[in-house]
Amino acid sequence: MTLFVNHLTHIDASLWSPEHGLTGVSWHVDAELDGELGPDGMLFDFGEVKPWIKSRLDAGLDHTLLVPTEAAGIQVVDCAEGLCLCTQLPYRMEVRGPRQSFTLLPWPEITADRLAIHLSSELSRRPPAKVDTIRLRLRDEEIETAAYTYSHGLKHHTGNCQRIAHGHRSRLHIWRDGRRDAALEAQWAQALDASYLIHDEDLDTPFDEQPLDELSVAYQAAQGRFSLKLPRQRCHLLSTPTTIEHIAAWLADTIARDTGSRIRVQAFEGIDKGAMADAMPPATTHDDA
Ligand SMILES: Nc1nc2c(c(=O)[nH]1)N=C([C@H](O)[C@H](O)COP(=O)(O)OP(=O)(O)OP(=O)(O)O)CN2
């Protein structure tokens, strides 16, 4: 007998790719379980399947930086913070943090399909009673309109969002003067894609003392000390924590100012959640008119 659960949970993480650099992922997780029925006529109670699998994914790779250690230019060493990752291609990046904030995989690149096979094998090693095999499928949300990926860290978060490099793949909806504007959505999704969002308070030195081509952030969070350096051109700087509420407000204010229009932004954080913000263009004084 096979039991299936679609949309069992989501996985949100940052992914290092030797081709694209630091990107964000948000995957739907579907599960199939093979086994024998128990006397209650169930293979495994649905109410138990979800927490059984979700708890193991949440305690594992969810909200970590996924690192293909066999990719060119990758170096991972022990350090005072836990692990230090240095990359060379397609750009130099250094991330330091507790071991639990990294998922190291001895592969040249990490794909959803290969990760699904790996996770299925891991979960099938010690399956629940009556279950012989567990198969997972990881899949992107189908997004027909604009989408982008980003990474960030929320140092005050009590959970795994405090990790300096975790990410998401998100829809972006923008209304200009009350009408959806596909061109603005495409423009901003492209501007934000594969970026790292920084709260300027987390810069390890004042902005004007940072190197011209790189930004460096560092903070102490509940799980430990984190730091990250990457090219400035991959970063966007906010004057607030990079929660989705502040991201939505930052986008709405910026786009309203740039376009001179009334703007509404629906910014998603991964799959099916996020924040909405409205903004008006700055008032024009009489002599500007
Ligand atoms: N109000 C807000 N809450 C949270 C925010 C936020 O911006 N505003 N952000 C986070 C973290 O960024 C975190 O990465 C969100 O993680 P996610 O996995 O999407 O959320 P959950 O773990 O709660 O959802 P599951 O899909 O059930 O794993 C946290 N909170």
- The assigned structural class equals alpha+beta
Helix content: 10-25%
CATH homology superfamily: 6-pyruvoyl tetrahydropterin synthase/QueD
CATH architecture verdict: 2-Layer Sandwich
**Quaternary organisation:** single chain
How are helices and strands ordered from N to C?
EEHEEEEEHEEEEHEEEEHEE
The shape, in one word, is globular
Bound molecule kinds, no repeats: the ligand Nc1nc2c(c(=O)[nH]1)N=C([C@H](O)[C@H](O)COP(=O)(O)OP(=O)(O)OP(=O)(O)O)CN2
CATH class: Alpha Beta
Overall number of structural domains: 1
Q: Could you describe the largest sheet, including whether it forms a barrel?
A: 7 strands, mixed
Overall radius of gyration? 21 Å
Number of helices: 4
Could you say what the CATH topology is called? Tetrahydropterin Synthase, Chain A
The rounded distance between the terminal residues' Cα atoms is 72 Å
Mean pLDDT: 96
Q: Approximately what portion of the residues adopt beta-strand conformation?
A: 35-45%
Number-wise, the strands total 17
Low-confidence regions = none
Pfam families: PTPS (PF01242)
Pathway: Purine metabolism; 7-cyano-7-deazaguanine biosynthesis
Family: Belongs to the PTPS family. QueD subfamily.
GO molecular function: 6-carboxytetrahydropterin synthase activity
